[in-house]
């Protein structure tokens, strides 16, 4: 199923990407989700009425502490985040993580956050995830009226299949893949984007990788996965932030972050036949509908 194109004219991300890649203006508070019966953390702007919010899913065997900078970043731009610290074992239940993301959405929409001065608008909810959590975010979005958009960073293979689930997600999506060949490739982000039922933007970050996005630098160095990727993590954060502010807050100045064909430094977008090629489809395998 071919994806729908959000924009027909190539848009430039340069104007806002640099700013959105850096920390935003809001003071951030960090809380524990255990009061709601779920292991995890909540990151919220200190105050705000009718703010947007997302549930965030972690990658395979990654503790949520390995995303502290990213979650704080989103909250600093006025986006509340709830992140479950569940399914962190060697054999996780992907459906279980998706269910926990759903629980996070209920928490975000149902209680005052921070010191009671941050209130989420129930109509401004989305899901975000990295690797395994990106796949789980897609599973969470299927036939879910609470979810208004999905951002999946280097989404990995899940059971049930996120690639198949994407065919049933009829809300805007941002899928981020790697512009670098990877020996440890845990998924096919381009195929997910190609299968997406709703509007979708597929981006590749020049040297960004699935293994490089989490914030466990010492582990990566000791295991030989690679060195710090702070520059590419910042770019990914900026892309997601702009997309969420446009989709959830209806901030039109960030519309380029939802456009299918948008360009930016170290960022390339793929649509149509080029997206199908990245997804691994031969020309005669691409259906005209």
Automatic annotation (TrEMBL):
Gene3D superfamilies: alpha/beta hydrolase. The keyword Membrane does not apply. Keywords: Hydrolase. The keyword Hydrolase applies. GO terms for molecular function: hydrolase activity. Residues 23-180 form the PET hydrolase/cutinase-like domain. InterPro entries: AB_hydrolase_fold, PET_hydrolase/cutinase-like. It comes from the Bacteria. This is Dienelactone hydrolase. It comes from Corynebacterium spheniscorum.
């Amino acid at each position: 199923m071919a994806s729908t194109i959000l924009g027909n004219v190539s848009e430039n991300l340069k104007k806002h990407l640099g700013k959105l890649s850096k920390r935003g203006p809001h003071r951030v508070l960090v809380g524990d989700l255990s009061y709601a019966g779920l292991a995890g953390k909540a990151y919220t702007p200190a105050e705000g009425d009718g703010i947007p919010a997302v549930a965030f899913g972690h990658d395979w065997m990654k503790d949520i502490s390995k995303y502290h900078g990213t979650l704080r970043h989103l909250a600093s731009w006025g986006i509340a985040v709830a992140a479950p610290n569940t399914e962190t074992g060697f054999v996780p239940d992907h459906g279980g993580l998706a269910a926990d993301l759903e629980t996070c959405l209920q928490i975000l929409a149902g209680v005052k956050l921070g010191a009671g001065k941050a209130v989420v608008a129930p109509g401004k909810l989305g899901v975000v995830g990295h690797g395994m959590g990106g796949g789980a975010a897609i599973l969470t979005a299927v036939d879910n009226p609470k979810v208004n958009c999905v951002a999946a960073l280097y989404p990995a293979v899940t059971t049930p299949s996120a690639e198949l689930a994407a065919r049933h997600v009829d809300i805007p999506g941002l899928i981020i893949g790697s512009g670098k060949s990877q020996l440890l490739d845990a998924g096919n982000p381009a195929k997910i984007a190609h299968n997406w039922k709703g509007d979708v933007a597929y981006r590749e970050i020049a040297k960004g990788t699935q293994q490089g996005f989490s914030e466990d630098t010492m582990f990566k160095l000791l295991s030989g996965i690679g060195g710090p990727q702070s520059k590419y993590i910042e770019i990914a954060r900026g892309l997601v932030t702009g997309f969420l502010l446009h989709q959830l807050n209806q901030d039109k100045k960030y519309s380029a972050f939802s456009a299918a064909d948008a360009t930016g430094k170290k960022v390339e977008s793929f649509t149509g036949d080029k997206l199908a090629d990245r997804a691994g489809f031969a020309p005669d395998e691409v259906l005209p509908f």
